[in-house]
Each structure stands twice: as C-alpha cells, then as structure tokens.
Amino acid sequence: MPPRLAVRTIDFFERAVCFSRPFRFGAVVVTSAAQVFARVEIEIEGGRTFVGASAELLVPKWFDKRAHLSPDQTVDELRRSLEISRGLYLASSAFDTAFGYHASRVLVQIEACAKEDIPPLAAIFGPSEINKAIIDALLRGAGVDFFKGMAANIAGIDARLAPDLRSDDITRFLAQCQRQDRVAIRHTIGLDDAIEGEGGVADVNENSGARYFKLKLAGNPEADATRLARIGRALAKLPYDYRVTLDANEQYSDLVSLQDLLDRLRTGALEPIANRLLYIEQPLPRDLTRAVPLGALAHLNFIIDEADDSYNAFPAARSLGYRGVSLKSCKGTYKSIVNATRAAKWSTAREKFFTTGEDLTCQAGLAVQQDLALGALVGLSHMERNGHHYVDGFADTPAEETSAFLAAHPDLYARRGGQVRLAIHDGDLLTDSLVTRGFAAGAHPRWSTMSPLRQAKVRTVQEQIP
C-alpha cells in the first residue's frame, strides 16, 4: 500500500530571473520572469516529517493568452493559483496518499480559480508545484529515488480522474518504466533568434550539438514558410542528420490557414524541413482545438500543449485527430503519467500515440531536473530544453547554491567561464545523478536568499470583463 501523509506547511518564495536574450513565442517577448519555489513539509503516517521542494518559472502570457490581460496580470493568476491551492491543501490535516491529496482537491481548485476568472491551465499550476514538492518529501522520507519510487507507485496514482483507464493500467505502466540514461536536447529556435552565420541555428556554440530542433511559428503561413526555408538552408550545413518539430503556440486562427502552411511544406524549398518533421504542436487556439476536428490534416502527427488543461483533454483531442500530448511538470506530474499510460495503451501496430517533452523555460536547478526526470521515467528520447539557451546558467542564483547543485549533479552541470551551466554531452543530457533520494534533486535551494511570494492582485469583476 502507498504510504499516507498529511501536509503540514507550504511556503512559496520567488527569485527574479533575467534572460540573456529575448525569448519570443506566440505574441509575447519575455526578457525576464520570476521563478517560484515551493517548500512543503509533510508528516508521513507514523510521525516522521520531511521537507520537499519544487520550482518553476512564472511565464507571462502562456497559461492565459487573452489579449485584454497584461503580462503582469497573467503572472498574478499563477500566484493566485498557488495561494488558492495552498489553502485547499492545508484545509484538512487528514492522512491520504500523495495522489489522493491531489485528486480530492484538483476539481475544487479549478472551480475556485474560475470564480476569479483564472482559466484551467493556470488553475492547475498551483497544485502542480505543490505536488512536486510533496513527491520530493515523500521520496526523501522513504529513502528512495524518483525512478524507483514511481515504479512502485509510491504516490498511489489511480484512475479516479481518468475513467477511461483502470488503476491497474497505471500501476503496470509505471512498473515497466525504465529510466533513459541519456535524453537528447531539442533546441528551441525562437521567433527572434538568429538563423544564419555565427550565433545561428547551425553554430555549435549556439545549438550545443543538438540533433533535434523545435521551430517556433508565428501564425502567418507565408512568413512562417519563408522563415522555415531559411532555417532549412542553415541546418543543411550540419555535419549530421537532424529532426524538427514545429510549435505555433495557438497562433493559427483556423484550419484554412494551417492547411496553407502544410501545402507550402510540400514545396521544394521546405523539403528539408518536411522530410524531418516529427510533429506539429498546438497550432490552433485552445478553445478551437477542443471544438474542431483535424479532418484530412490528421494524417500528420499533431499534439496538444496549451489545450492540455484537464485530465480528459487528451482523450478529447484524440477523438479530433490528435496523436500526442506534451508532458510538462508545470501542467502536472500526475496528469503527465496518466497521459503517458494512455499513449502506451492506445498505441497499436497500425496507429501510434505518444507523449513529448516540451520546456516552458525550465531553469537550472530543481525545475529542469524534475522535468527531465519525468521525461526520462516515461521513456522520452528527446526533450525541448531552452532554459540554458535563454538564461545564462543559474543566472543570479547565489554561488553557494549553484555550487551545491554542481556538486550533487556533476554530470548535469559544469562550470564554464565562472558560471555553472547545463552540461550537454554530444547533444544529450545525462540522468545518472538524478538517481538520488527525493525527486531528482541532491540539493535544495537556499531559502533565506529568496523573497516570499508576492501577494497577487485579485482582479475586480469589472477587470474580468474584456
């Protein structure tokens, strides 16, 4: 039986992260953001207490892209999501499994956030961060690593939130998971990133030897096709083969414009991209994604990302022609495992369903380690990693903290030019050091060096009306 626990304290902190270059995706350009850190103390039934931690960037205008909201307002939604979730997790002192804590609260969380006009994708951010910290504390208490603990389903994940599955499906899936000891990076090419020449996509100093590339789209078929052709010509200079994915971040307004882009992919100029294309990520706005079948376009591999805001999102997308879904820690470790179970169960010799690793700028330290461990657990061979690309290593993290992470994870980080940065080995990240007691973290942040989570401004009813 999975151990039962009670959550005793939840504290949130934040730290500013300055980007070393602008990151443009969709309609937003990010040059800095706050990173939130969760510190959770649990009591495992029997009286022992343990502390776990998690971290994630508070990215503006991704969880909620509505045009009438400012970037700061969308970040405040994430802070409110955290605060509301903390209240729900601390409302009862009863013991339950780690997953039971989540399952009994997640729908209430979404309803409470809806009353403040916070959409489901932002609503699940709060419990996602708390859950990661609970998993970390639980694993530390049990004295096991993430991979061994999850293989035994230490969190007690069951099918109560996924009625299309049986609980045994999840338990069997976890039991057969084998950690990937190397995970290839998928290098992001943002909309403002250089393409040709020094600092361009084929520059090894820029792409870290990546064999996989994620190309951002802006939603204009002609402009996107022109840019993709330039990228294809630049990548042709690589001395090895490569694969690409496309990500529109909801920027295509309808299937007609999306079909226009796909028609252009069949032309000679875009053949280098089309022949290496693995899948297309979230081309349509999330509301349209849920309502419109892909139809004839479904012969290609499409995945959902921003539309993955509930436990029934992937089955609904499957019925509309989508084949995959992104796994992101910020959208929920448990939901990611449930979706990976579904993909494995649904796949046949004739039709394959899959999960992918997409990175919402996971930063060096807890965020990138826990997200990487999740992907390595379910067998992902490559994952988008862009925190190292848009941020200079650990950025302004205190030296004592960065040194602790370097010492605990010498295969994942290296000191170069006076800064501790992600260590990429022939285009791969190594996961051996993630096999450590807790959730893939041999070190914790220095809590005294951070500020408490800023109190979010709750929007008035008038402000909620666009």
Commentary on this structure:
The chain contains 18 helices and 15 strands. Strands 4, 5, 6, 7, 8, 9, 10, 11 and 14 form a 9-stranded mixed sheet that branches. Strands 3-2-1-15 form a 4-stranded antiparallel sheet. Strands 12-13 form a two-stranded antiparallel sheet. The chain has 2 domains: 5-172 and 452-464, Enolase-like, domain 1, CATH 3.30.390; 182-440, Enolase-like C-terminal domain (TIM Barrel, Alpha-Beta Barrel). It has helices at 71-90, 98-103, 106-114, 120-123, 125-142, 146-151, 167-176, 204-207, 221-235, 255-265, 271-274, 286-291, 313-319, 333-346, 366-378, 387-390, 399-408, 461-464, and strands at 5-25, 28-44, 48-58, 182-189, 212-216, 243-247, 277-281, 302-304, 324-327, 354-357, 382-384, 413-416, 419-422, 428-430, 451-452. The chain is 35% helix and 21% strand. The termini are far apart. With 466 residues, it is an alpha/beta fold. The longest helix has 20 residues, at 71-90. Helix 7 (167-176) packs across helix 14 (333-346). Strand 4 (182-189), helix 8 and strand 5 form a beta-alpha-beta unit.
